[in-house]
């Protein structure tokens, strides 16, 4: 989707202390071989703050840096890949009350690790149809510090990090301009993350923990499955990533030669190359691997953390283009192209 007049006016993040992966291996939380093969050096772990409070922290920074007043906002769009609190309770309104505290819509975006990109698409529509409003607050957070999630072993593709991120999408101005955003899906692969789980009754918290790797294993061993199914699925998803990037770049009117850096999802090293970097023809140096490997997979916050890191450390500057690349179950790939329009000092 080509975007006209939409900027990123404010950005804020929250990353707690990190636990070295070598220490996790010494403690027996992760197999030492798996720890080494992951390429991850440390993982962010927050033992005290709930996800929504981390989101409030990041959002407060983003709103302050944006220069917008609370009454400028049309909505708050919040996301998380894991549970934020009790069933039947609204995490978005918790964040809204402690940030903007305005009588605007607050809703949850349930699109896995593509939630922030989807929120940007929705923000463009909201701001185009809400007279008098100039901004939308986008928040994202997850805290996996629960006995129902094994952050170290749950997935063969990633180690889960606790974090939060926030963006202020604005029609006024900002440190970056959103040129295009979109996603493409391959729904024939949805069963990969379903495995053999029953759909009725659905598995719900706290009935069973979140196990990703066993579901993928069950999928690969389903009746009629072939030994090359997983390899074929990974290749198909890689093609999907490349197709999505090409489409988004075309909509943005930007060629690959104009992309300075790529901010991507925080997979472990081998899956990151197989599913994201290699299909794009991008090196780890062009991506945000050296940063992401010190945090882990920050779920819904990965892309914002990567963009902020590139911008605040001066690795991208005015006029540079950054490609944001994410993925989620389904399977679906998403991309966005942003152009940096101001140095970090412009936000204080």
UniProtKB/TrEMBL annotation:
One of its GO terms (molecular function) is 3-oxoacyl-[acyl-carrier-protein] synthase activity. It comes from the Bacteria. CDD domains: init_cond_enzymes. GO terms for biological process: fatty acid biosynthetic process; secondary metabolite biosynthetic process. Residues 249-340 form the Beta-ketoacyl-[acyl-carrier-protein] synthase III C-terminal domain. Keywords: Acyltransferase, Cytoplasm, Transferase. PANTHER family: 3-OXOACYL-[ACYL-CARRIER-PROTEIN] SYNTHASE 3, BETA-KETOACYL-[ACYL-CARRIER-PROTEIN] SYNTHASE III. This is 3-oxoacyl-ACP synthase.
């Amino acid at each position: 989707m080509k975007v006209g007049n939409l900027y990123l006016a404010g950005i804020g993040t929250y990353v707690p202390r990190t636990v070295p992966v070598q220490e996790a291996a010494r403690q027996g939380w992760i197999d030492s071989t798996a720890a080494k093969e992951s390429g991850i050096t440390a993982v962010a772990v927050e033992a005290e703050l709930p996800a929504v409070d981390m989101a409030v922290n990041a959002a407060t920074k983003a709103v302050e840096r944006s220069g917008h007043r609370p009454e400028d906002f049309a909505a708050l769009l919040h996301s998380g890949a894991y549970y934020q609190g009790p069933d039947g309770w609204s995490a978005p309104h918790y964040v809204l009350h402690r940030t903007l505290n305005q009588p605007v819509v607050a809703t949850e975006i349930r699109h896995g690790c593509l939630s922030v990109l989807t929120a940007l698409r929705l923000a463009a529509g909201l701001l185009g149809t809400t007279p008098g409003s100039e901004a939308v607050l986008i928040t994202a957070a997850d805290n996996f510090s629960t006995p129902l999630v094994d952050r170290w072993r749950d997935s063969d593709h990633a180690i889960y990090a606790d974090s939060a991120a926030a963006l202020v999408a604005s029609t006024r101005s900002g440190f970056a301009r959103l040129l295009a955003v979109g996603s493409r899906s391959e729904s024939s692969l949805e069963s990969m993350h379903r495995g053999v789980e029953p759909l009725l009754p659905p598995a719900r918290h706290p009935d069973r923990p979140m196990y990703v790797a066993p579901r993928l294993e069950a999928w690969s061993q389903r009746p009629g499955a072939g030994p090359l199914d997983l390899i074929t699925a990974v290749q198909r998803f890689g093609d999907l990533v490349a197709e999505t990037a090409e489409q988004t770049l075309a909509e943005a009117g930007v060629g690959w030669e104009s992309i300075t850096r790529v901010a991507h999802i925080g997979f472990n090293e081998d899956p990151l190359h197989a599913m994201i970097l290699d299909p794009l023809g991008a090196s780890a140096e062009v991506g945000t691997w050296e940063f992401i490997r010190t945090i882990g997979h920050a779920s819904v916050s990965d892309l914002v953390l990567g963009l902020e890191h590139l911008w605040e450390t001066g690795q991208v500057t005015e006029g540079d283009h950054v490609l944001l690349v994410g993925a989620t179950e389904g399977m679906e790939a998403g991309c966005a192209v942003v152009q940096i329009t101001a140095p970090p000092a412009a936000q204080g």
